[in-house]
Amino acid sequence: MSVRKLDPVLIDRIAAGEVVERPASAVKELVENAIDAEARHIEIVITSGGRDLIRVVDDGMGMSAADLTLAVERHATSKLPDGNLFAIATLGFRGEALPSIGAVARLTIASRKKDASTGSTLTVDAGLKGDVKPVAMMQGTRVDVADLFFATPARLKFLKTDRAEAQAVADMIKRIALAHPEIRFTLVSDGSTLLDCPAEYGGDAFARRAGVILGKDFAENAITVDAIREEIKLWGLAGLGTFHRPTANNIHFIVNGRPVRDRLLIGALKAAYQDLLPAGRHPAAALVISMPPHLVDVNVHPAKSEVRFRDPGLIRGLLVSTLRDALQHAGRTTSTLAHRAFNALSRNHGSYQNPTPSSSWDWQQSPSRPDGFDEAAQAAFDTLSNPSVDMRAGLSVPSDDTLDKPLGAARAQIHDTYIVAQTRNGVVLVDQHAAHERLVYEKLKRDREKKTITRQMLLIPVIVDLDAVAADRLLAHQDILENLGLSIDSFGPGAVSVTEVPASLAEGNIDGAVRDLVESFEEWGTGATLEARLDHVLKTFACHHSVRAGRRLRAEEMDALLREMEATPNSGQCNHGRPTYIELKLADLERLFGRS
Question: Model-level pTM?
Fold first, then answer.
């Protein structure tokens, strides 16, 4: 077959496949045009998920009849005045959006400039351009996209349900709205308003818009991030370590006003949170990166959803160091923990109005039954020999100075696990084992950085029986473990002997720590960095150091633990991301008892 040039309409339809993948892609391109036109209110209306109709109306600067004629030609744009691709200051710049949409749908554009007496309208039907006609309208632009993909029926088969496509449009609008809080965005789907974000102004405009987009909980449980390195500025909001989500949908990055989903940025964010989140959970963040245009290439993806930085190492280092520093100095847990505790107590409130229990009630099957209260532990009720509440800390009056501390003064220990502390304005419940786990881990990390991990030789080596493959895998990491204070040697087929351990692990579960390390090594593969591997080993050590678990503490020991928590970074959550303490305000307690 001989070489030939493709039909221009066919060229447009092929190119449209790169720009317009689904209704959300078309909406994105049209909304970005409206933003570049300096609109202050953008209204989006869709029907049937956008496949039947997409309408975008803005109050921007509008276009003349001549501009409108050129706007639907491929590679015609008003956004590169000097043709410099290294100084792109607008969202759109390729001049592909409108002709691509017009090639696969019925496109109608009406626009009027501020000083024009009338507007102009133009229709493009499956790539066939009509004549420009006058139209009466207000200043701005209205774009209607009807019967999307009718000219390419094969693409229709790949669309999802109307609800799923509408949700994709809503998610995309949320990301753009977060990047431009000064603009009002309205989204209507099949007659129902899905989103209405009023314009925000002032120094806290971004924070208010983030509260609308990511939810009130995020606004209450986020910390401010602000840093500058060389010509790059990073600012915005990052969720606390104890505020996490099951998916990554609440991660928002904005680069020079453009919302992006960049793997480098997401990877750096996860690296900053790696010690704080439970497995399978994701952080929430709304972060803005500003830099000179020549330091970032936005022309690397057809949908402009990814970018390429001139110095990716600088960007990653700025993100990781800034976020880690901000999270370490946050010094608090999420307010949602207190709400959760209050709600749990509220559900049980009033259960004493009828003190006569049901004849079928079995306290042993109750979900509120404390651990250890089974038939074999009746001695737990003996308050003389083994009280479940240790009130020794409550015998002394706490000083005013201690009450003003963030975690207050220890007043009691319950079930040999939880510390009850009193603050000036409420009560703090501390999981002493989870807290001590974090303290040990942070100390091990500091010692590792200073190369001063304290080691202790075992009088009797601990023999750990494994299968041959697991033993070989463990011995393959012998050098890493040795540098962290754990000395192991082969002890015959499928077994290792532990002869030396970090001092913090000497009284812990050495056998369990070694077995957990084997399972971790199986999952590492080649993707984990050396730092991540070292931190994971230390985390395992801390997890199996159980000196504080099930141990009754003296008053001074409890207070010392609270003070150490206050001085330790990330002490609001343990190594697995679980909270180490929950605070209830005095007002919450008074509400529980009907005193307010």
Answer: 0.72
